[in-house]
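Entry — protein

Goal — fold tokens:
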Amino acid sequence: MNLFNALLVRLLVCLFPRDTPRAAWNLIASALFMVGLIVWSAPYFKISLDDLGFDPGPMHGVHLVIHEAGHAIPMMIGAPHTFMVFMGSGLQVLFPLGIAVAFYIKNRDAYGAAVCLWWAGHAALDVAPYIADARALELPLLGGGTGREIEGHDWEYLLTHWNALSHDTHIAAQVALGGRLTMAAAFVWGLATLAYEAWFQPTPPPDETYPGKV
């Protein structure tokens, strides 16, 4: 039983690493934000990749800035062409994941990490329509026109290079599923974090909360 309790405590510390209580106003505001994010995200769990490609929503602009940086940075350091092409979509997903890791490790803030995990899942979902479009080349691109009009786009090149062009829609469906599952996991983790901090988190002694105060 003692071993079980020790494992349970370790699991809770891993999932909810924050060691100082969150202010009541912060808990309420964080809960309202998470609920609002869930409501706002609901359409992304049922929209088709075709529809999402032509109407990606407001977050697409955020993803696009990071996507273009993912191309530009490897280009500036002379990275291989295939890596440069891949890192558009790659950085789009890795950037919010990196911020999530920073929230978790540096700030010990599981809620902040969960929000960034949602961002990463949404970024992956944003990539999926372009993977599915690798053969069709019908989606509008940043410079205007479609992939067919400008002789392809990132994922047409990548899947052709990897001899996987015929699997574009299947790969896209798996990426979309992964993005949606990541978003759902982020919602569960974020709400569970707030519930734990509100009702179950031990309150540290005054001298630990305010070092140096007797």
Residues 168-199 form the longest helix (32 residues). The mean pLDDT is 90. The radius of gyration is 21 Å. The chain has one domain: 29-202.
